[in-house]
Amino acid sequence: MHKYSLNQVVLIGRLGMAPEQRETTSGTVIANISLATTTTRKVEFDPEKWEENTEWHKCVAFGRIAQFICNYGDKGRLCNVIGRLQTRKWTDQGGVDRYTTSIVVEQFQFLDKRDQSYQPQARRQPTYPDHQSIPDRDNDDMDIPQDTDDLPF
């Protein structure tokens, strides 16, 4: 084993469906989840338009983590996954070698409350008590570039 290697994946995304639960013959719980992450960028020739790209990740969890995911996971829940990439190889019925890569979950956390699952048709607006106001911020004293072309990345 090489002592200077790292295989780690960190994702924050939403569950694309309810977790699929199964068990091994020895009784170990396995959870398969599909996690969606979305990146947004400006369209090259039209700075007013933004383009979204959603990537789907296959994740598999075992044991207590899998049980937790199956008990509390619902489609749309926001979660944090830390794990490692694992590629499996098999031969299909036609004799062709096939590969699949998934993330083996080592740490898992829900980042929202169970009843706050993502619902695109009903966006949530923050609510504040009547006695509390949001202070207006004057951005003049902040050193934030107004044009994204000035950003170093």
Q: How would a crystallographer describe the biggest sheet?
A: 5 strands, mixed, barrel
As a percent range, the share of helical residues equals under 10%
Structural class: mainly beta
Helix count from the secondary structure assignment: 1
Shape: globular
CA-based gyration radius: 21 Å
The tally of strands reads 6
First-last Cα distance: 35 Å
Uncertain regions spanning at least 5 consecutive residues: 121-146
Order of strands, main sheet, comes to 1-3-4-6-5
Oligomer: single chain
Give the ordered list of helices and strands: EEEEHEE
Question: Could you explain the architecture of this structure?
Answer:
7% of the residues lie in helices and 46% in strands. The chain is mainly beta. The protein is globular, with a radius of gyration of 21 Å. The two termini are 35 Å apart.
Summarize the model shown.
The protein has 153 residues and is mainly beta. Helices cover 7% and strands 46% of the residues. Strands 1-3-4-6-5 form a five-stranded mixed beta barrel.
